[in-house]
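Marked as duplicate of an earlier ticket. Keeping the data here for the record.
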Amino acid sequence: MHGMAVSLQPLDPAQLATLVPQPWSSLGKVAYEAIVEGILTGVLPAGSQISIDRAAKQLNMSNTPVREALSRLAAERLVLFSANRGYTVTPQIAAEEYRQLFEARRTLELAAIRSAIIEPSAIPRIDSILSPLRTIGATPEYKQYRAFNQADREFHWAIVRMSRNLFLRHAWEQLNFHLHVGRLYAGAGVIDLEEARAEHEGIFAAIRESDRKKLLKRVGDHIGNAESRLRQLVHQDK
């Protein structure tokens, strides 16, 4: 993807990175996905300053959708805004933040399952979400690990949405877990694809059986296993 630029420190033209717009109808979505790709692939490294004017020119749009995209990314904690520097890319999560992120996700997801209503109508919807997860390739290409990351989020969100507790659902969304963990895949891809697939199928089987106890066990194990498997990709605290 080619299109959006970021000015690094110092502002040297040789250091400008570029991204590409994707064919979505919403210009805000185009700008958002272009910047997300840059961050998740490392084309826009931590600390990079994002020039709204330059991004808009390279994406062939006005400043407004770029500004909207950056505002959304600030809420998701992928960029920071300051009056002096404008928008900059946040650092990747370090080891302790990684542990806390998984701890928060586990707490919220299991609490959501405990208050969930497992309805038969949810089964075909969850099965359709799992479908792309069964076919995605284990390559380090951005499109592959982004597709996995998005489908994985939808799978777990479908489980959380069964909860009757609106505050738990909102808190899980606000973690933006998959965006932050998605940054770890750059250059490596989904290193635990086969293990994740098998665990997803086990979770889905528990949903089909409406077995809450089994579902709690399998989701808890899956989150713990994923934390262990991906830890090698995390920058260690100094």
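See parent ticket for discussion. Residues 95-114 form the longest helix (20 residues).
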